[in-house]
What we know:
Low-confidence stretches: 441-469
CATH class of the largest domain: Alpha Beta
Number of helices: 19
Number of strands: 8
Amino acid sequence: MAFENLTSRLQNAFDKLRGRGKIDETVVNEAMREVRLALLEADVNFKVVKDFIARVKERAVGQEVLKSLTPGQMVIKIVNEELIELMGGHVAQLAVANRPPTVVMMAGLQGAGKTTTTGKLAKYLQKQNRKPLLVAADIYRPAAIKQLQVLGEQLNVPVFSLGDQVSPVEIARQAIEHAKENHLDYVLIDTAGRLHIDEALMEELKQVRDVAKPDEILLVVDAMTGQDAVNVAESFNSQLELTGVVLTKLDGDTRGGAALSVKAVTGKPIKFAAMGEKLDALEPFHPDRMASRILGMGDVLSLIEKAQAAVDEEKAREMEKQMRQGEFTFDMFLESMQQLRNLGPFEDILGMLPGMNKMKGQLKVDEKQIARVEAIVKSMTKAERANPELLNASRRKRIAAGSGTSIQEVNRFIKQFEEMKKMMKQFTGVADKMKKKAKKKGFGLPFLGKGGGNPGGMNFPFNFKPPFK
């Protein structure tokens, strides 16, 4: 999980501030020593760490604690604001040319995921109702052109290629003309990478840049390489004058050094972050949301956006209506699980919920167990899914055989389902009360169904105890 180690270290540092009545220099120094070590262990650039700590100290020393805040919360607030500023302060938008097409040149070393990221960016633009053109200008890496063509087929996006015998400069020039003639909005040029930075690579990229006159020059770097990613970004920027950076494999980077260093070192914003292997796993980089994740405060806004994009709203509303009538069937359970799976790995989703980082040891999600539960439900007949009372001993034996599980597992799941059903009924009543109170006060509440601020009417079939009767 992204930033897992850093988040854990920072939370340990802030825990030591609890119970303090006033923030003084000694207290701040003690906390900042821990923060400094946490950042250095996360492979953040040394100078960046030094400047960051100095700014936090300057703001924190001598501040009286606000009535509504503990000293720990005051320091966390300052650290949060400085982290946001460190990573760029605001979302850096992708350029839009005054006259289409907008030309985006993708650069990077081999192995950073440049070609795949080019495809992901095309998918992102499709969602914005744009018409992109993929340009195969990497004529050196074996199968690079074929890889881009396969991505184009998957996305139903046109791919411009002149083979591997024409120069990348000529390919870029003709691709832009092709985009103009066919009224395409964006031209995404997938340039060649190398195993290391060399003069030949830079010279060719400069020639492509001079001909294509790109509105964006995006550098794709592997976040998992840590400080090396920052060094690569600095070298490319000095030669090409980048407009932004795309961090790939950020979901696999437990340290986070690249994300925290690249803007400060290069002066160029992180525009996108790739958080998975799927073609839709490219997100605009939000410094405020990333800072919130780093500090273990979750990222509810990104979770809401994921829900809006992935959840079938019509199905969710129908399910909500049935629940309000006291119905909760195995089919509804299965549908809920599938909708949740559309949001991504469960551990990543839990990580977006505030306070879940400290509980992740208790909330380990076993994907294999989830698959076994789904197999049990799918082994039931349509009548059995709608009416659990039909599940006698012989039927349960058949279901166990059909799902590759034991009778004990089937019995355990059915029992848990019945308990969940009771809880869902309780929760529906609680949610209604909360929504009525919220409506009177003029605001909505998340995850409470239609009218409660719920994106897509999503319902979570989790077995939990309502906070009050």
